[in-house]
């Protein structure tokens, strides 16, 4: 099981750092061996759960935020629980996926430093904790609404299908990873029972495709001739093809957002907040495209957390759009 846009966590001091030409760890080492100590094991489990990846789950706030219901305590609680449910399920799938792909990860230049591949935690511990997190996420989703439970369960099925088959099918692997983002956005709307605009869904869909294509291009460039050893579809894609996907996806995203912003705008608003939000949104996409061309083709969450320009555009957009939702209307 995998969400696939995984940014490999940086290695800690206690984990051996092997050079690209060094001999990788013995595949049998750490597969079922105990971790080096309770503290090391706990830290390893936390790293393997990838809490940094939880930033993707803020997408559950998108639809409720656009609908202006986040100030309602009941809706805010439902969205918070939806966020927790996705964090638990996502971390569970990361642990199970790493346990399953331990041999492939040990051949990867960066993934071999992940706690399971490096032998910091055993595969048995990873599987037990992963299953517990999955069950916990489904229970939390069920406590909100059955519709949210259905979406979270569907997300789990999709990640499983991706791990077992879809990640090896060209084009479908990119589309499936993009759908992981879309599911989160849809789940936020279902958690508080708000309707989802067609333009909202288009923006979410093609914006996700834009980010995933950038990530794949980064993997293509980073791994070079060895790329097919860890991801077979990278042997089919060319960098030109992946960049063409980025251009198309960015164009559709920008057009759909403009149409959505004008659709959201009330006819007698004092200030055109929704229309003004187009500017930081466009700047965000253009800045992202610039960073990708500069070969900073990182995982989306890493790129946003490391670039001040993207952060400034995101904050400006959230402020302006929020004023449109909660003040301008």
CATH level-3 fold name of the largest domain: Tetracycline Repressor, domain 2
Beta strand %: under 5%
Largest sheet, strands/sense/barrel: none
CATH architecture of the largest domain: Orthogonal Bundle
Helix-residue proportion = 55-70%
CATH class of the largest domain: Mainly Alpha
The number of E-state strands comes to: 0
- Count structural domains: 2
Radius of gyration, in Å, reads 20 Å
Could you state the order of secondary-structure elements as H and E? HHHHHHHHHHHHHH
How many angstroms does the end-to-end distance come to? 43 Å
- Counting helices, strands and paired strands, the structural category is mainly alpha
Q: Quick one: CATH superfamily of the largest domain?
A: UbiA prenyltransferase
Key attributes of the depicted protein:
Tetracycline Repressor, domain 2, 0% strand, disordered N terminus, 329 residues, mainly alpha
Quick summary of this structure?
The protein has 329 residues and is mainly α. The chain contains 14 helices and no strands. It is globular.
Task: Characterise the protein shown here.
By secondary structure, this protein is mostly helical. The chain folds into two domains: 24-195, Tetracycline Repressor, domain 2, CATH 1.10.357.140; 197-329. 66% of the residues lie in helices and 0% in strands. The chain contains 14 helices and no strands. The chain has helices at 38-48, 62-67, 73-100, 102-106, 123-144, 146-164, 172-192, 198-223, 227-230, 239-264, 273-276, 278-293, 300-306, 308-328. α3 (73-100) packs parallel to α6 (146-164), α3 runs antiparallel to α7 and α8 (198-223) runs antiparallel to α10 (239-264). The longest helix is centred in the N-terminal third of the chain and has 28 residues, at 73-100.
